[in-house]
Amino acid sequence: MSSLNKSPFLRIFVSYLPLVILFFSVFNEFDFNYLKLDYFAFNFVHLLIFFWTLRNPDKLGYLAIFFAGIINDVVIGIPLGISSFCYLILCSVTAYIRNITLSPNFIKDWISLLFTILLINSIQVIILDLVFLIQVDYTNYLINSGFTFLFYPIFFLLFNFLNERISDQTND
Amino acid sequence: MATGRDDFVIAIRSAFLKKKDKQKFSLLTLIFLSVFVIILSNFNFKAIQFIKIGINEVIYRSSYISSIPENKIKAMIYDFKSHMDLYENYKQELTSEKNIEQIELLNNFLNSENKKLRDLIDESISSEEIFAKVLIDKDSPYLKSVVLNKGTKDKVKLGMAVIDEVYLVGQIIEVNYSNSRALLLSDLNSKIPSVLEPDDIQAVVSGTGGDFGIIEHTQEDYKEGFKNREIIVYTSGRGGLFKPGIPIGKIDKSKTEKINFFSDFTQLNYVKIISYKVGGGK
Questions:
Q1: Averaged pLDDT for residues B107-115
Q2: If DSSP states are collapsed to H, E and C, what string results for B23-70?
Q3: Residue B11 to residue A70, Cβ atoms within 8 A
Q4: Which of A69, A119, B162, B204 is disulfide-compatible with B216, CB 3.0–4.6 A?
Q5: Does B269 touch chain A (CB under 8 A)?
Q6: Cβ–Cβ of B23/A57 closer than 8 Å?
Q7: How far apart are CA A149 and CA B123, in angstroms?
Q8: Among A74-88, A106-120, B190-204, where is mean pLDDT lowest?
């Protein structure tokens, strides 16, 4: 890893990695659907935004998140602006948690994530179903929220590792 | 109590309005902007449509390029599965090929008879076919749709049928300059007027969000008669968008409402976009 720190290109790449992963995942609608496992899907983008806007918001700008939402809407074919709105609601919750928390606690973050994803998925369902009259499968949304919640600890470890690397580089 | 409420208000205000060093916009500004975009996308003004088409063009192409590694993985998984199922598939092919020559002869006769009868009533069906490549096939848990590489420049129009080999897979719901989006039959919002043969019962095939469809708007007593029989679902041609007789799927013998589609929507690479014109005279 020390050799990684020496290369200027890799240093820049690592510092922009959360942003790269965000755009890569919205372009790909990353949710492991092609495994064809029934009732298995999770929203990776929600986990990514939740972690980075909570722990290191400088690495994931709100404007980038807004554009990522627009791209996500176009790729999955829902009316423009809905994902952006939901992602920004997620950001506002993390910003609020950051403001009221003195020492970060994983369990509290995890429980907050559950409430937040239930809130934003409800908002998305309400907008799609009641405003745009697009029928959606509530079960899929619920399962997706459940798996997103369950997968947070795994991605927390991965993102935390990456965050430490980025912080080390900044301190160097 | 008042202090607690003040703290809450300060935390909320700070979360929405305060910008960090590297943030160029406050959260509140961007939330208002996204609400504005949602409202605008509800309108169909010419200017908004052009902007939408522009955004779609750029994003679909970029998404296609960035999906290449994912598509390679998908293809590898599919190849591995088909390799493992090779013997089973071979056995199925053997049984299905047994009567193929007889069926083909009968089919040719029925086709020519059908043509004569249409001539008698002075009716003709003409069609235009456009071959398209599937650019994006996300199989999202929310909306089941695919993006195709043909658009208005290739004369693709809203509502055209999308066919895989001879089977109906969906219809065009969005057209841009060089690409278009097709809603698959498996989507919850897909409703196709159909006919159940050999009983000649009119029904509507609706998507479920899964990899099968269901029959709607038929009477319960009909469904009882479907048990342990082979019922094929075709388009009925009602509504005028599709020609009658495009195969959609087969009714599951165990569950009389469930339709197993003939086409595997996860394996669509190339499809035909077809428009039909049913009219009197030639």
A1: 86
A2: CCCCHHHHHHHHHHHHHHHCCCCHHHHHHHHHHHHHHHHHHHHHCHHH
A3: no
A4: B204
A5: no
A6: yes
A7: 59
A8: B190-204
Give yes or no for residue B237 having a pLDDT over 50.
Answer: yes
Which tokens is A168 given?
């080390």
The structural domains of chain A, with segments of one domain joined by +, span: 2-171
Q: Considering CB atoms only, which of B14, B24, B38 is closest to A99? A: B14
- As a whole number, the mean pLDDT across chain A is 84
Chain B, residues 66-95, CB within 8 A of chain A, namely: 66-67, 70, 73-74, 77
ipTM of the complex: 0.84
CA angle A52, A53, A58 (to 5 degrees): 85
In this prediction the pTM is: 0.79
Tell whether domain A2-171 is in CATH 2.60.120. Answer: no
**What is the per-residue pLDDT for A76?**
83
State whether residue B50 sits within 8 Å of chain A by CB.
no
B24 contacts chain A (CB < 8 A): yes
Q: How far is A51 from chain B (nearest CA, A)?
A: 16
Beta-ladder partners of B273: B130, B162
Cβ–Cβ below 8 Å for B27 and A88: yes
B247-262 pLDDT, tens digit per residue, is 888 887 777 678 888 8
